[in-house]
Fold this sequence. Notes:
Structural class: alpha+beta
CATH topology of the largest domain: Trna Endonuclease, Chain: A, domain 1
Distance between the termini: 33 Å
Oligomer: single chain
Pfam families: SfsA (PF03749), SfsA_N (PF17746)
Low-confidence stretches: none
Family: Belongs to the SfsA family.
Strand order of the largest sheet: 7-8-9-12-14-15
Number of domains: 2
Domain Sugar fermentation stimulation protein C-terminal: 82-222
CATH class of the largest domain: Alpha Beta
GO molecular function, one term: DNA binding
Helix content: 10-25%
Organism: Enterococcus rotai
Amino acid sequence: MTYPNVYLAHFIDRPNRFIAQCRLQETGEIVTVHVKNTGRCKELFHPEVEVALSYQPSPKRKTEYDLIAVKKNDAWFNIDSQVPNTLAAQAIQAGTIILPGLNGEIISVKREKRFAHSQFDILVETNTGHQAFVEVKGMTLENHGVGAFPDAPTLRGLKHVTELIEATKEGYQSYVLFVVQFEKVEIATIHTAMQPALAEMILSGQKQGLSVIAYNCSVTPDTIAIEHQVPFDVAKTFEDPNSER
């Protein structure tokens, strides 16, 4: 995926979850931008860190720029919370993302399908008549080569995992897919200290047939693309970089 009209800037501050102040590198102009991720991202948003902005002017918008990526050390991290679902659907359809144990060959990939009280991101149908739900979660939190989710407690995420387990009991195949929105990652896990109940539910789900997989991405200031599968281990210890600051 390629973003249009991308400009480099430096992050100044973030008054709230939705907007940030940035200084354009080319002109020095200070602009108010929309942050395309309501997560905390404290380990990414340091003063003067380099960021990528997509210029998207519209009379309907309050800001003209979207903040889409942040440079951490020497690597770019995409923070666009809307892009993982699109990347996942395209990659599953193209065969870049493999759903382990899927019964049959994929004949359709549909977006946003309801089950019980949830709306899952993807419904996959196969030529053997089987159906599979895929819930996609973007991952931007990293420390020492370990990627983790979430960076803040998520009741919605816990609900999704709970209902994926119920779907498995009713004969659906069910998957949690973590799209790691950066490239340099050795293993993905759950941030157990942040949300113990989510880790417990993931582990319980795996014992009941829920599949949990993770794929990393290549990221530049104006592009993001699925790369390859990375290991997932719910038992992997994660050291929160924000607790070290």
